[in-house]
Design goal:
The complex is a heterodimer.
Chain A (H helix, E strand, L loop, with lengths): L2 H8 L1 H39 L3 E5 L12 E2 L2 H6 L4 E16 L2 E10 L11 E4 L8 E5 L9 E4 L2 E9 L9 E6 H8 L4 H16 L2 H5 L3 H5 L13 E2 L1 E6 L5 H9 L4 E5 H10 L1 H34 L1 H9 L4 H30 L11 H27 L9
Parallel strand pairs in A: 4-9, 6-8
Antiparallel strand pairs in A: 1-11, 1-12, 2-10, 3-4, 3-11, 5-8, 6-9, 7-8
Chain B lengths: L7 E14 L2 E14 L3 E5 L6 H8 L7 E6 L2 E5 L2 E2 L3 H8 E4 L11 H10 L5 H14 L15 H13 L5 E5 L7 H18 L2 E5 L11 E6 L2 E6 L1
Parallel strand pairs in B: 3-9, 3-10, 7-8, 8-9
Antiparallel strand pairs in B: 1-2, 1-4, 4-5, 5-6, 10-11
Helix pairs in contact in B: 3-4, 3-5, 4-5, 5-6
The chains are: A alpha+beta, B alpha/beta.
Chain lengths: 403, 234
């Protein structure tokens, strides 16, 4: 005869409500772990999806995600001629915030090196990838955009041609993909007034030096397009993504490029580690600390619940002792209920989580390993929590029944 | 010890129980000696505070005496305050307890309450199930076997409690005012039941009671006052 289950059956309503309460608490613990996994996945998804062997970035930076990286676009050609390099694509990444349909819309724009990179590697769930050099974009569905939507960015109107799934930046912003030139045009877009002010200032600066006074006709160039002034150099991009030919050692190719004095090189794995050790690390520590606190709170609450449940049964426990029940019978009654409470609470947490987590603004990823770990933690705290009740039960005096 | 006859189930000698310490000491039981034979039903009478329940806790191995010896079925159980055996094992195998309230476990049915006493003594479920039904039938509450205590009347609960006390074929049944919550008629029925149990099951029975209306069912009455046994009537 199992006393624990008999008692639960008799007090089913109270036990169910208590289990639901524990379940909600454990759902938060589970969710915190899931949020951390989501942050990690969001941070590394793009790097993994792109699948570049090497990331060539500005010297001594941790770009383009952990910090800003700016390199000249012609670096693509330089990288391409390195022995062992098969492909070299320019890459731009930056974040914008626009009002869309009356709501703020944050987007991380990724510029793809059209026509070499048409975004075929993207996990497209609706529509298609990029099919022309300008004014098209592929957006993640988390942005709320739909295929066919029009979006004003810079001075152009872009049409959403495809939707991806789970392509979110490390800060949780939805990604959109467009050609590199379009991405740069959006990034460096200035208002006409800003351009006019800059051109006027440029002419003034020219006449402040000897060159302007000796050659006043240069003012015409200075007040014209940026591209008409060779001294301003080529446009800047965030990184060059290189693919290494089969049979070549990636590390060896990286070493060759690393020897250049103006760039740094990371492998795909190195780029992932940069992200995880940088922006994600603090989030991981913060969530980890919060999660530990929640586990302690859960353990204390469970201990108090089990203590109260034991107090309610103290007379029956005294009676059991009086008629000669071994301590193991009493211990089993309390501990089995504690484990059942923890187990049912865990199942409720999982089921509720499956229902609620998809509605969270950021991804909550429940990994099997994390769930197993939490299940073991719940088992341990259930056992530890029952100790307070067991301690009280062991002190129950059988003589109380006679009193 | 050859001092004790074979049919004597309980022998207590020189029992004293003192509560408190230092300046505040209360002698609840003072130098009490008594014996009970198998098949004998004994009433323990006395006013409130006389020490009846305390004596019962000593005889029931619930609390140790400060001085004195207790022998059950010829085995020395307490020598002064020192237990000589595993008390809980001894209680579940040798004793049956009945109280003023039935004290049934509220989440177990009548039959399960009776079975519980046997199953904590490691008796197989099949055996305990059969004996529980036999006992409930013997006590006239078999039809209530599957009911929870909350669905039983006070008298029925008390009968189930008696069945639980008899479950392990005890040598000694200790009852503390078992008719306290029953009316006169039902109280007498319970006392007669104890007499029947003592004689038919060959167990020694000690009943602490205030109820003088049913004293004729007892083989012997003992009277306590100020922690001491004053009188004994056959």
């Amino acid at each position: 005869m199992n006393l624990a289950t008999k008692d639960i059956k008799h007090n089913f309503g109270r036990f169910s409500l208590t289990s639901a309460g524990i379940g909600l608490l454990l759902m938060i613990v589970m969710g915190m772990g899931g949020i951390y996994r989501g942050v990690v996945e969001d941070a590394t998804t793009l790097v993994e999806r792109i699948g570049a062997d090497l990331w060539v970035i500005q010297k001594d930076t941790r770009g383009p995600f952990a910090e800003i990286s700016r390199i000249p676009r012609d670096l693509e050609e330089r990288v391409l001629v390195v022995p062992g390099v098969e492909t070299a694509h320019g890459f731009v990444s930056h974040t914008v915030q626009r009002d869309y349909k009356g709501k703020p819309l944050r987007l991380t724009i990724q510029g793809l090196s059209w026509p070499l990179d048409k975004g075929l590697w993207l996990p497209i769930i609706a529509g298609r990838g990029l099919a022309q050099a300008h004014y098209e974009l592929v957006a993640d569905k988390s942005s709320g955009l739909q295929v066919g939507d029009k979006l004003a960015l810079g001075k152009e109107i872009f049409t959403v041609k495809g939707l991806t799934k789970s392509m979110v930046s490390q800060s949780g912003d939805s990604m959109v993909f467009m050609t590199l030139d379009d991405a740069k045009a959006v990034q460096f877009d200035l208002s006409p007034e800003s351009i006019r002010i800059e051109r006027t200032a440029r002419v003034k600066r020219l006449f402040d030096i000897d060159l302007g006074q000796i050659q006043p006709q240069m003012s015409e160039r200075a007040s014209g397009l940026n591209s008409g002034i060779p001294a301003l150099g080529t446009s800047m991009i965030s990184a060059v993504l290189a693919g290494v030919k089969p049979g070549y050692n990636i590390e060896a190719v990286a070493k060759q490029i690393e020897a250049w004095p103006d760039v740094s090189v990371y492998t795909g794995e190195g780029q992932k580690q940069l992200l995880l050790r940088g922006p994600v690390e603090r989030v991981r520590r913060q969530i980890g600390l919060f999660r530990r606190l929640l586990i302690i709170v859960s353990a204390i609450i469970m201990a108090l619940i089990l203590y109260t449940l034991t107090l309610d049964k103290l007379h029956d426990i005294a009676m059991l002792k009086l008629i000669g029940a071994r301590n193991s019978v009493i211990l089993g009654l309390i501990m089995q209920q504690a484990i059942l409470l923890g187990g049912i609470g865990f199942c409720i947490a999982y089921l509720l989580g499956q229902w609620i987590f998809p509605h969270f603004p950021r991804r909550v990823v429940l990994v099997r390993g994390d769930l197993y770990s939490l299940a073991i933690i719940v088992l341990v705290i259930s056992i530890l929590a029952s100790f307070l009740g067991i301690w009280r039960a062991m002190r129950a005096d059988p003589g109380e029944v006679l009193a | 010890m050859s001092l004790f006859k074979n049919n004597i189930v309980l022998q207590a000698a020189g029992l004293t129980k003192i509560y408190g310490s230092g300046h505040i000491e209360v002698v609840a039981v003072r130098d009490v000696s008594l014996s009970v034979s198998r098949g004998e039903i004994v009433a323990l009478l006395g006013p409130s505070g006389a020490g009846k329940t305390t004596l019962l806790t000593l005889l029931g191995l619930i609390r140790p005496p400060n001085t004195g010896q207790i022998l059950i079925d010829g085995t020395l159980v307490f020598n002064n305050h020192q237990a000589q055996v595993d008390l809980r094992r001894f209680r579940r195998q040798k004793f049956g307890f009945v109280f003023q309230k039935a004290n049934l476990i509220p989440f177990l049915t009548a039959a399960e309450n009776v079975r519980l006493a046997m199953e904590i003594d490691d008796q197989p479920a099949k055996v305990s199930r059969k004996r529980a039904m036999e006992l409930l039938e013997y006590l006239g509450v078999a039809e209530r076997a599957q009911n929870l205590p909350s669905m039983l009347s006070g008298g029925e609960q008390q009968r189930v409690a008696v069945a639980r006390a008899l479950a392990n074929r005890p040598s000694l049944i200790l009852a503390d005012e078992p008719t306290g919550s029953l009316d006169g008629v039902r109280g007498r029925q319970v006392m007669e039941l104890f007499a029947k149990v003592a004689h038919e099951q060959n167990a020694g029975v000690i009943v602490v009671t205030h109820d003088h209306r049913a004293l004729d069912v007892f083989d012997r009455t003992l009277e306590m006052e100020d922690g001491q046994l004053r009188k004994s009537h056959n």
